[in-house]
Amino acid sequence: MDEFEQELRQAFKRQPAPPGLKNRILQRRRIVAPRPSFPLFAWNRLAASFASLSLCILAALAIYGGYEQRQAEQRRKAEDVRQQVMTALRITNHALNHMNQQLAAHHRVRQESREN
Amino acid sequence: MARDWQPDFEQLVDNHQSMVFSLALRMTSDRGLAEEIAQDVFLELDRHLGKIESPAHACFWLRRVAMSRSADALRRRKVRGLHLWVKINEHHGLQLEPRTSPLGGRLEALLATLPESQRAALVLRYQEDLTPEEIAATLNAPLATVKSNLQRGLKLLRAKAAIHLKEFVREKEYARGV
After folding, report:
1. CA distance B74 to A115
2. Do residues B120 and B27 lie in contact, with contact meaning Cβ atoms separated by under 8 Å?
3. In the predicted model, is pLDDT for residue B91 greater than 50?
4. Is the CB of residue B108 less than 8 Å from the CB of residue B27?
5. Is the pLDDT of residue B87 over 60?
6. Are the beta carbons of A14 and B18 closer than 8 angstroms?
7. pLDDT per residue over A39-95, tens digit each?
8. Which of A12, A16, A25 shows the shortest C-beta gap to B18?
9. Closest partner CB to A28 (pick from B21, B43, B157)
10. Which of B15, B37, B127, B163 to mutate to test the interface with A (most CBs of A within 10 A)?
11. B38 with B63: CB under 8 angstroms?
12. In the 8-state DSSP scheme, what is residue B141?
């Protein structure tokens, strides 16, 4: 080791820690919150998991209920439309029959007049 | 597994606070930041106290974590250059410990200008008196890299010292009225 390295060793001696460093470390150590014991920690985690699961199930049920309600509403509207179409067809059929009968009567009258 | 040695946190702080603080100070060149790093290192030691197996292991662990935390702090902070550092130092006397000699203070200022990896190797070599193998284990770096950093760092520091310390000697002689 040469003279320069000896000089470096002298220059790089450890510095004393600032006064009160140990006390500040111990103070910060006390401030750090104590960790909960395992059973309480486990119960908390279990309760949190259960609550999350319940919320998920409730949300899924709400979504499914809304979907079902909407489907029922659409089915009811479709049935109403079907009834209206059937009524319209019945009316049309009735009108056509009536027209048909009138035409047949008219045709019969003309044939009788020709024969006479 | 039973152990003969039981770690005593307060005793470990007493024994190693100077080492941890000095490592952080020489790596960061900032007393406030160095103290903050030292506190964080010891609080981390407290959390890992169950894994510490012996006094030598505690010392090794503290050196390793102190260097790692200092490197993290340096990454977060832009390191100031030599001229600003020396200027602040001379005008406000914030950085140097009163017991440090002016020459030692200059060498520390020059050390602060070296690249981080070279500075780390030199600090562990000349402050902690570690061998290159021990430095490699502490920094978790290849031995060849550590040897290279030591050589390059020493060469660079020697070159800088040759320039700056000549000026320093001239200033001292001028102040004495030579």
Report:
1. 124
2. yes
3. no
4. no
5. no
6. yes
7. 666 778 888 889 999 999 999 999 999 999 999 999 999 999 999 999 999 999 999
8. A16
9. B43
10. B127
11. no
12. -
Residue written as token pair 């409730």? A58
Which residues have C-beta within 8 Å of that of residue B145, sequence separation ≥ 6? B117, B136
The CA distance from B118 to B150, in Å, is 6
Q: What CA–CA distance (Å, rounded) separates B58 from A109?
A: 126
DSSP code of B127? T
Q: CB neighbours of B5 closer than 8 A, spacing ≥ 6?
A: B53, B54, B55
User: Which burial class, exposed, middle or buried, applies to B25 when counting CB atoms under 10 A from its CB (0-12, 13-18, 19+)?
Assistant: buried
In the block, residue with structure tokens 């935390």? B69
Q: Cα A101–A102–A104 angle (5° rounding)? A: 65
Query: pTM for the full model?
Result: 0.63
What's the Cα-to-Cα distance from B152 to each of A4, A12, B39, B76, rounded to whole Å? 15, 18, 32, 25
| B14 → chain A, closest CA residue | A22
| ipTM of the shown complex | 0.76
